[in-house]
Design brief:
Keywords: Hydrolase, Metal-binding, Nucleotide biosynthesis, Zinc. Helices cover about 25% and strands about 15% of the residues. It has a five-stranded mixed β-sheet, with helices on both faces. The longest helix is centred in the first third of the chain and has 13 residues. It is globular and about 70 Å long.
Length: about 200
Amino acid sequence: MSVEEPNLENGNASEAMAPESHKRNDYLHWDDYFMATSILSAKRSKDPVTQVGACIVDSQNRIVAIGYNGFPRNCSDDEFPWSKAKKGLDDYDPLEDKTMYVVHAEANAILNSNGASLTGTRLYTTLFPCNECTKLIIQSGISQILYLSDKYAEKPKYRASKRMLDAVGVTYKKHQPKQKEIIIDFDNFLLEDPNSSLGLSDLQL
């Protein structure tokens, strides 16, 4: 009786049906992941013009806190102004300017850390921090800032930010995404077979 030699080139049948054993290669890079978290946080902002999000991360790549720009807790989103008061107009009223009331994303993230030590952490923010937020960043011990946009770079308050950061050695750099687009599709996750990635779909139980 002859014994059929196994087909080593194509592998045996059990190997052919086995689930993939290697890791997925299109997973999110850490920096993209944390910046995406900041962008997602910005979606919570009710500011009709500028939505900003921030995320604070420790040395173990754990998210310590997140925040977005908005009014202080219990200050009604429907009673306080969402626009800037224009100087020079007859009805100019500085108390009707949103900048008098809005808490910036970076400040909110620091406050949302619930007193945890932020020494040596990294801050991811969708917009380079202003001078007031920079004071809080320095005082809290954050050691690095990664930002997505610096569109107000020439304004005095942002130039002051860089002056302070440079003076104390807090580093900052513009985030360069490795992945240009991240799509969150709730329906896709609801319809996806949770067993498909494990190769269990065809098992008869």
